[in-house]
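Assemble and predict.
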Amino acid sequence: MVGTTVDEQTEMHSQATVVPPRLEVAEDRRGAVEDFDQLPSEISVRDLDFFYGKEQALFGNSIEIKKNRVTAVIGPSGCGKSTHIRAYNRIFNLYRDQKAKGEILFDGANILSSQIDLLDLRRRIGMIFQKPSPFPMTVFDNVAYGLRQHYRMSRSDLSNRVEDALKRSAIWDEVEHKLNEPGNALSGGQQQRLCIARAIAAEPDVLLMDEPCSAIDPVGTAKIEELILALKNKYTIVLVTHNMQQAARVSDYTAFFFQGRIVEFGPTTKIFSNPAEKQTEEYITGRFG
Amino acid sequence: MSTVELDATQSPGAPRGAAQAAPRGHRLRIGDPIFQVLATACGLGLAVAMFGLAGVLVYNSWPAISGLGTSVFTTVAWSPVDHQYGALAALAGTFLSTLVAMVIAVPLALVIALLLVELVHPAVARVVGTAIEMLAAIPSIIFGMVGIFVIVPFIQDKLVPWLLTTPLANVPGIKPGPQNQGGGLSIFTAGVVLAFMVLPFITAVSRDVLKMVPQVTKEAGYGMGSTTWEVMHKISMRYANSGIVGAVFIGLGRALGETMAVAYLIGSVYTQLPRSLFDPGTSIASLIAQQFSEATDKIQVSALIELGLILFLITVVFQIMAQVWLRRVQRSTGGRA
Amino acid sequence: MSTVAEVRSAPPRRRSIARRKATDLVIKVFSWIGAWFGIAVMAFIVWEVVVRGAGALSIAFFTQPTPQDVTSTAGGFANAIVGTLVITGVAALIAIPAGFLGGIYLAEFGRNGRVATAVRMIANVVMGVPSIIVGVFAFAIIVKPVHHYSGFAGSVALAFIMLPVMARTTEDILNLVPNEIRESGLAMGAPRWKVTLGVVCKAARGGLITGATLAIVRVAGETAPLLFTALSSPYWMTGLFGPGGFFEGPVANLTKTIYDFSGSPYPHWQALAWGGALVIIIAVLGMNILVRLLFQRGKEW
C-alpha cells in the first residue's frame, strides 16, 4: 500500500463494494465438502481448562480453528462459549481470579504461555464484543485507534487505511460524511460494524466475535452476517452465538458446548442435519437451552 | 458516602411494623401533610440559607463597596492603619498558592485514581482509598501546625538553598525577592500543604468517575492490544473527562477558600505583590482570619466582609462549574457521580 | 480483493512494544509511588502530632483550664474540650434533624423534580463554600447585632456547614434503599411518614448513623468558623447566659485555642497546643475509622 495512490485505492474499493459481498450460503459452506484434516489450522486448542476462582468453567476443550473459515460456537447460556473464546486473546487476564490451563497453539506458540506478548497477541487476534463498544472519540479516531497505537505512519497512509477498513466493514457509505462525529452517535448496528472496522484496521489474523448481534436489530444483524461472510476470505473468524439460525447461516464449522465441555464439533451442515450426539440434537431441535 | 446497612430480617419486619401502624394512621391523617411540609421546608431552607448568606454578605459589605469603590481591586496593599484596603496582594496570593496546589495535586490524584480503579485488587483499593480519604478528615489547623514546624524548616533550610544552586534560581518567579524570609513562609509552602489537603477530594471524585467507564469499553481497549496506561488515558479519561474536570474544580474551590493552613504558612505580608513563589504573601481567607477579630474600624470590617463576598462568589462559580461538569458525565454514562 | 493482500504485505513500521510497555510501567510505578506518598503524608502528619503531643497529655490537661500565666507550667485544655463538645453538640442538634429532613425531602418527595434538582445543586455548592465565609456570615447575623461573641454563634456557623452534608448524605443513603421496601410499607396502608421514618430510615439506619457521625466529626475540627463567633476564652463556660455563658460570651474551644497557643512563643503553650492537636486527631480519625468499620457492609469500595 506504500506505493498505492489514493485514486487507485478507492477504485479498488469501489469494485469491492459495488459487487455486494453476498455469497450463496449453501455454496459457501465449505465444511460440507472439504477435507477437514487437510486444512491448515489457525488455532489449535488442546485440553483447555478454565477456572473462575476455584470454580471450573471449561473442561478439557480441544478444537481446531481452521484458517479462513467461520467457526461457530453454540450452546445454552452459561455453557462456557464466551469463556472459551475469551481465552484466545487472554482478555480474561484482566481479572485476577480467572485462570486457564492447557494449550492454545497459535502461529507455533502457546497463547497461554507467559512468554507471549499480550499486546501483539491482541493485535493479531481482534475481538468484537456483545455490546457495541465504540471508544469515546470520533468515527475516524475509533478506526485509527489500533493503527496509531501499533504503527507509525503518515497521516495520508492512516486515513487511507481507515477508509479501507470502513469499506471492508461495509459501513463506509453510511459514515463517509460522519467521520468526525462521535462513534457512539451511530446506530447500534453501525456501532458494531464500526467496532469490526476498528478491529480489522489493525490487520489481525483472527476475529473473535462474542455474540456480536445480540444487541442489534434484525436489519443490523443481517448486515453483520453478510459482513462475516465477506470477511472470512481474509480472516479466521470465531463466532459465539446463541442464535442457531445464525450459526447455520454463516459458519463452516460448528462446535456445540454444554456445561463447559465441547460435546460435538464438525461441519455446520453435519451438526445441524445429522448430529452425532443426543445432547446436540436436543439442543438444535429446541428441546432445551 | 454510600454506606447502608440492610438488615436481612428487615423485609419481613417491615410490613409487620406498618400493619401495627395502620389503625393509628387513620386517626392521624394530618401526619403526612405535616411531614411533607416539614421535610420540604428543610430542603428549601437549605436553598434559602445559601441566598441568605449571599444577601448578608452583600448587605454587610455595602459600606465598603460604596465607600471604597473599585480601589479594592486596583490597589495592592491592605493596611488598615493607612486606611488602605487593596486586595490585589491577597488575590495574587490566593491564586498563586492554589496554582501550586493544583499543579501538585491533580497529577498525583490522577495516578492514584488509576491505581485504585485499574491496578489493584478492590480490597487493596479500598484500604488505600480510605487512607487517602483520611487526609480530608485531618483538620486544617493540624496541616498548618505540621506545616509550620516541619515543612517550613525543610523548605527554608534545604529546598530553597538547593534551588539557588541550580539554574532554576534565575527563572523569574522562583528566586525569592529581597523581602523574603528565606522562602519558608511563602506562597509555595502554602501551596504544597494545600495540595495534600485537596488531594483526597480530587482523588475520590476522579476515582468515582473513572469507575463509571463501562467495563466493556475498557475490555475493547485491552482487546485492541492496549496497555493499561493506553486504555486509561486514551479511553477511560476521555470517557470520564468532564468528570475529571469537575473533580479539578472541586479541588480548586477547596484550595481557594482554605483558611487555617494558609494563615499559618503563607507569611502574612499584606502590602506587596509577590514576585516569586518563594515570597511571603497572603490570601483572601487568611487575611480575613487574621484581621477580622481585631478589626475595629467599621469600614475595615465591611471591607473584610467584601473580601469574603469576593471569595464566596469565586468559590460558588467553581463549585457550580464542578457540578455542571459532573452532571455531564453522569448523563453520558447514565450513572451517578 | 488485491487491496487486502497489498495492505497486509506492506506492513507499516511497527511501534516499539517495548517502549509502550516501558511507558506503561513508568506510569504504574508512578501511581504506586503516588499512592504510597499520599499514605506516607497521612502517616507522617499523624506521627508528628503523636510524637509532639503525647508528652502534653496528662491528667491536668483534661482537668484544668487553659493557663493564663505564661510562666507557670500548669494548666490544661479542659475548658476548651468542654467548649468544643458543647459548641459541636449544639450545632449537631440544629443541623442533624434539619439536614435529615432536608435529605428526606430530596430523596422521597422532591426526587428528580426541578426544585429538588436545584436544591441538590445548591447543597453541593454550599458544601464547597469556604468555612471562613460561614464564620463571617454567623458573625454578621448573630455577633454583630448583639455586640458580643458567643458560643452559640459558633454553633450556628458549624450547623450551617453540617446542614448540606447531612442532607446530601441522607439522600444518598435513602436512595440505596430498594423501592420494594417503601412499597411494601405503603401497601399495608401505613401513612407515608411512618413508612419513611419507621421502615425506610430504619433499613438505612447504619448509613444514617455513619453519615451523621462523619458530619459531626467534620465540623468538630473546624477552626475558621469559630475565629470570630465563639472566639476563645481562658475560662470555663459558666452556663447558658451571662458574660461567660454559651449564649452571651466567648466560649473556649479546642481549635481556636490550639491556633492561639501554637502561635505563642512559650514552649509550654506550644506543647499544650500539640496536645490539643493530638486529642483532635484521635477523636476525628478514631470516629472516622470506627464508623467505617462498624457500618462497612454494603459499601462498594
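Chain A has one domain: 6-37+66-96+114-284.
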